[in-house]
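User: Quick one: structure for sequence A, then sequence B.

Assistant: Sequence A:
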Amino acid sequence: MQYARRDSRRGRYARWCAAALGGAMLVGAGCAQLAEKERELTFRVVPGTASWFDGLPAGVRETDLTIEADGRPQHIHSWWWPAATADAPAVLYLHGSRWNLTGQTSRIEQLHAFGFAVLAIDYRGFGKSDGALPSEETVYEDARVAWHHLAELQPDAGKRYIYGHSLGGAVAIDLAAWLSEEAAKEGTAVPAHGLIVESSFTTLADIAQVVTSPWLPVKLLLTQKFDSLSKVRELKMPVLIVHGSGDAYVPARFSEELYAAAPEPKKLLLVDGATHNNCLRVGTTAYLAAIDELFDLKPVPPRRHAKS
């Protein structure tokens, strides 16, 4: 009887272990599904060509950058638009969620009109780039690959800039913080002259709280952090933070918080009447003045085409 009871206990223990293991596997699978859904909602990738895209601007060169992923090469699609002069400042353009490069032409054209040479990329999972669903990790990796390419295109570190819009602002801040940290480790100058962050946020949890409910524990649930607030403190380059006062998607207070956390030299530009997507156009004059003031760079005012 004693052995029977022992065998019975062992049987119950084995069944309990099997049930616990099965439950853990189900939870793991559920977490994996939740994490994938979170990434889908974060990046909201719209496939194909943006409906308003009317072709590549004249002078843009398409090319693919290579990155190793899971032991195989993957390609990051990019646009390179040289400036009118070979020694012009160059900017790495990092876009936000939803739209690939075909949906970014307006801001890219405006930066180019300011006198910048522009390198713009689609993260893996966007546009013509390889890969499936992006993640916080992969977009950071893609930005660093693109930065190395920009350094080849513009060898003068004093003429290299980073620009990020919306979610791309978080990617830009991560890249700038990484460059600052690497330079500090090596005891060298930071290989970039400045950072421009437009219509962005403090952390992904903060913006998720805005679009959901203040009582939901989103900070505990999110795996994608995009914690710009902590990283912006580590910058070792000038930063211009821009936000439209009429932004209905990302409150301007987030840019004010980023500005407050960033070290000097820095400048905050709140564009009166601008929305989430049109600060460059609505605030052209103020934008040009801010770039000149902070970076000691005199960009070219865009030409006004006469109406027929």
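Sequence B:
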Amino acid sequence: MKANWFDAGGEGYARFRPDYPPELAAHLAGLCARRGLAVDVGCGTGQLTTLLAPHFDEVVGLDPSADQVANARAAGRVRYLVSPAESLPLPDGGVDLVTVAQAAHWFDLPAFYAEVRRVAAPGAVVALVSYGVARLEPGLDARFQQFYWKEIGPYWPPERALVDSGYAGMAFPFDELAPPRMEIRREWSLQQFLGYIATWSAVRRAGAEGQEQVLHRFAGDLEALWGDAGRVRTVAWPLNMRLGRAAES
């Protein structure tokens, strides 16, 4: 190993998590009858939050982690607050879009949904968004899939299964809408891709349990397969969504 690829600082999430395509924000906004206020719950560092800004008068990003909010991206018409999903610091009936990106599996869903019903304007759109397992180019993907499913797999928390299923089995008590087919595509160097992996909860857990050799063995294998570490290669994630509409008054 030439470097410790998994020695990531607190800003790693902001640097290495993939951005969502602008088409996602445009599609969600297009479902809304009104575009006054959008709320991104569990916003992290604002990957989706800032994409909503061009489409709404105001966007609020909420996350329970002060560290995530401190590293969130600034944008016009966007403000961030530290708040859990189960107690939204918002007045009743004023939100036109509620989004949750790659976070709903951590929530107390009954409590969160009760809050969504409270803050939602009549006919507001609710969107749970997640992205599936990455796919790499031929020659790299088989080694990555082995790592994901077999090597790091035992270290994922149980909630990860909900992400892998695209939230298919998750309760969703809203009038459901058909989701569009979308994906995230990035052209990344080896450092960027392994920086992304370093943000995984499973990787942090494996490290905490003294299993760094699992991580470094994979990184060494991928480094050999990648070739020039500075070479960019295509990484793609399928976007999964549960879309719905709150009840009209």
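Residues 12-245 form a domain with the Rossmann fold fold (CATH 3.40.50.150). Confidence is low (pLDDT under 50) at residues 1-10.

User: Thanks, that's what I needed.
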